[in-house]
Amino acid sequence: MSLRRLALSIAVLLAVVAMVTAGFWQLHRLSERREHNAKVSDRGRLPAVEVQDLIEVGDDYEAGAELEFRTVQAVGVYEPGDQVLIRNRSYQGAAGYWVLTPLRLRSGSVVAVNRGWIPRGAEVPAGFAPPVGEVEVTGLVRSTVTAAGLQQPDPSNGVLAEMARPDLARLSQQLEAQLLPVYVQLQAQTPPPGELPVPVPAPDLGEGSHLAYAVQWFVFATIALVGYPLILRHQKRSSAETVDE
Questions:
Q1: Distance from the Cα of residue 136 to its chain's centroid
Q2: Nearest CA to 180 among 146, 142, 153?
């Protein structure tokens, strides 16, 4: 009986350690989320600049991470023949794509513009072609995204009509012009866009449920630490009363 109780005690202790660890992990995630939100807010308050004044062709693709969420403007002409769809993107629960369209700037270089979301099965570019002629785009700087971990990269050869992610290095392989190492997430455009594509929403600055989850894990750990000794005490009393009888 004592061995069984010892094993149960060890199991409860391990469970408490796991719950406390989970609670602190949620607090760590909350701290990361707050840091991210502060970065987005701080960069969003900076004045808008021309995207080619912020970063140049030939700069490292990784430089985009230090510029993400800056507000930029870009004036040029869309090149719909070179646009690609970024698959597996959702909007309000519906499956679809992002439309990534190269914009040739007045300088001659090109920046990719995420014009927004379209539903799966939509005709592109016929259904949602960009405006003809010069446009002015205002949006957020976003950095390139490459395959990580067990993710499969896009095929390295050929001209892709669809991609798994906005991998700018891969996109540049099928463009004749020089591509800036960041892309622009469209927020506004002159002339204004139609109903589709739907512009991708700005980053959510909420803190999520990390704090609530952390509190729950700590409460569960406290219940276990307080409740288990009380259960043992009750069992001991019951055993003693049985012996007296």
A1: 26
A2: 142
Q: What are 187-190's contacts with CB under 8 Å, separation 24+?
A: 187/71, 187/138, 187/139, 187/140, 188/137, 188/138, 188/139, 189/131, 189/135, 189/136, 189/137, 189/138, 190/135, 190/136
Amino acid 181 reads P
**Model confidence pLDDT, tens digit, residues 112-131:** 999 999 998 766 656 688 99
**pLDDT tens track for 5-36:** 888 888 989 999 999 999 999 999 999 999 99
The more confident residue out of 185 and 240 is 185
Give 166's contacts (C-beta < 8 A, 6+ positions apart): 86, 98, 100, 112, 114, 142, 144, 145, 183
